[in-house]
Amino acid sequence: MKNTIKLSALLLLFIVHLPAKAQDNKLKQHIQILSSDSMQGRLVGTIGEQMAADYIQSQFEELKLSPLPNHSYKHDFSFTYNKNPHSYEISYDTIKGQNVVAYIDNGAKHTFVFGAHYDHLGHNEYNLSTDPNGTGFIHNGADDNASGVAAVLELAKIYSSNNIKESVNFIFACFSGEELGLVGSNALAKTIKSEFPNTSLMINFDMIGRMDSTNNLNIGGIGTSPILNDVVKSKKPIDFNIELDSSGVGPSDHSSFYYQDIPVLFFFTGLHTDYHKPSDDEHKINYSKMNDIIDYSKAIVDSLAFSPNLPFTKTKLKIEKRSKTYKYSLGIFPEYKNYGDGLHIQEVIENRTAEKYGLKSGDIITKIGKTDVSDIYSYMEALSKLKADKSYKVKFTRDEKEMVVKVKF
To answer: Which N-terminal residues, if any, form the signal peptide (predicted)?
Structure first.
């Protein structure tokens, strides 16, 4: 009898300390609401974005999470954007957006960030749809990126209700303005770096809802700290096939934190035929696999939290293109924000064309060959006109001084 009582007590103790798991029903609720037609595609600066932000805030409040110290849940930002990006006629909109942020203060020295963007394309007002007939139709963005937001909210629920005082603080950040150039995360990353200088990890979820039968999961950023590679591999679910990328830079919000010298990880289940189309709808989400991805990310975080002072490592840049590709490139990572005076170089890739011809971070490209460059779209247009074994004049400004270099691609 005593042995039976002891065994029962041990089983009860084991059950009580089982790690919290992601739940289908809450994930489905989040994605159904955020990707419903009522949200009108969640375009930054619209009523749909505000409705989505209100919903996210309500979930943080329901969990009794706090805003960041000296802030509200919503963090405002504004920027200008060329509303005719594929035209040489320049016309700018001034857009106001909101990030939504919550905080768990464990009184720890170091802080980890979970992040995902919640904005999407609206009715294709800015011509970013991959559907040639998409203008005027709601782009609900269930995978892109209601899925990532659902993951952040689920992790917020798990960490706020596990009755454990973790060895790190947590920030849960939902960004807007990603689709128009990582604008919201760029603003928030600077705030977090300033106010939480010991932030030592950012995990970004962008399109994690469409894992297929191959169980492929892309994880970027593993080279941004020497600790990440081994932990990511050791915690991998046995049936997952993971594709690892060392670069801290890619076409999503983790890039903004990488540029603040914060180690990053980027979870992404890959592109699909519904990417940036009105057909990216909720019923296509694989909730079971989403649960597994969230549990996997939590296992990684729990392991890293034992020694949370992750050293930052600069990585070689790798430019990912989500749609159109080009035979030739300068070998730069551009700023996606539209400044109106040319394409701003964020960083020059090592041993590539731009470095060879003396271009530097901070330079502003204004013309390639005969094509004027005012933003990312006219830059891509210029690249599409390049031909092999020909030299082209590249005009740029550096410290307000106009300069020209002749480049052979």
So the answer is: 1-22
Sorted by sequence, the CB contacts under 8 Å of residue 365 that are 6+ apart come out as 330, 342, 343, 345, 359, 373, 379, 394, 395, 396
Residue 322 gets the label, from left (phi > 0), alpha (psi -120 to 50) or beta, of alpha
Divide the 409 residues of the chain into consecutive groups of 10 and give the mean pLDDT of each group: 40 41 80 98 98 98 97 95 58 88 97 98 91 94 98 97 94 96 95 98 98 94 97 97 92 94 96 92 97 97 97 74 54 73 83 88 92 81 81 92 90
Question: What's the CATH number where 259 sits?
Answer: 3.40.630.10
Q: Do the domain assignments include residue 4?
A: no
The amino acid that residue 304 corresponds to is L
Are 104 and 37 within one domain? yes
The Cα–Cα gap between 248 and 189 comes to: 14
Residues 79, 130 within the same domain: yes
Same domain, 336 and 300: no
